[in-house]
UniProtKB/TrEMBL annotation:
<protein>
    <submittedName>
        <fullName>DsrE family protein</fullName>
    </submittedName>
</protein>
<dbReference type="InterPro" id="IPR027396">
    <property type="entry name" value="DsrEFH-like"/>
</dbReference>
<dbReference type="Pfam" id="PF02635">
    <property type="entry name" value="DsrE"/>
</dbReference>
<dbReference type="InterPro" id="IPR003787">
    <property type="entry name" value="Sulphur_relay_DsrE/F-like"/>
</dbReference>
Amino acid sequence: MSPTPRPLVIKTTSGTERPEATNQAFTVAATAVAAGAEVSLWLTGESAWFALPGRAADLVLEHAAPLADLLAAVLDGGRVTVCTQCAARRGIGPEHVLPGVRIAGAAAFVEETLAERAQALVY
């Protein structure tokens, strides 16, 4: 019997201006969900926009899975959070985000990253 994968916290700070970094964060998150890991994807900075309906389609990257599909996979098996301050700076409220997306602050991020066995990645 193989051990349970450790929790994975992924934070992405970029949006359409850095498509490869953004897509990589979502790809790793979706792949980890598929592998059975407990995944928490944090959308900060410009990536906060991807929490809104239809916005993931704005990122198109050749030879990469569509961002909307990756986001759906993470929402289906993991957790997606938008940074409170990032959301506020962009006028994004809980009523604007996709179902299943939460808005939370630094205390929640720190709690997740300091959890036993947690691995944090930042893109």
